[in-house]
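Dataset card, provenance and construction

Sequences and ligand SMILES were collected as paired inputs. For each pair, a complete structure of the chain with the small molecule in place was predicted and serialized as C-alpha cells. The example below shows a pair involving fe (ii) ion. Curators did not alter the output after generation; any descriptive sentences attached to a record were derived from the structure itself.
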Amino acid sequence: MYPGFAEQARADRDGKAIVEFEAQQAESREHAGIFRKAAHNFGLLTHIENHHAQQYTEALQALEGVKTSPKAASSDPATQKWICRQCSMIYDPTEGDPDSGIAPGTPFAAIPEDWHCPICGASKKTFVPYEEVVAA
Ligand SMILES: [Fe+2]
C-alpha cells in the first residue's frame, strides 16, 4: 500500500509524506526479509521435530517390548545425514545449507570447518552421523 500512498503524495507534491511513505516501504521490505529467514528456519525445525517424534516412538516401542535397531549409517557421503548434538538440526547433503553458501549435493566432509549450525550456531565438530532408528 505504501507505493500507492507515495505516488499519491508525489501527485499532491507533499514532500514530507513522500519521505514517510518511502521510508515505510523500505522498512516493510526489511521486515519481509526477516520473515522469510524465520520461515526458512521454521522449515529446518521440521527435521528436528521428526527426529524427536522418532525418539519418542522408539521409547514407546521399548516400553511395549518392540525391539528397535539403528538403521545403518549410509556409506555414501552424498546421502549421509549428520545431526547437531546440541539442537538436533539435521544436515542433509542433498539439500545443503544454501543460506550459508553450502550448495545442495555438498557432503558434510566438504563443508568448511568454520561453518556452524544454522539453528543454534554450534560448530561443525558438534555434528555426528545421523542414524535413523527402525523397528527390528
Ligand atoms: Fe544446532
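Derived descriptions for this record:
Residues 2-135 form a domain with the Rubrerythrin, domain 2 fold (CATH 2.20.28.10).
DSSP finds two helices and five strands in the chain.
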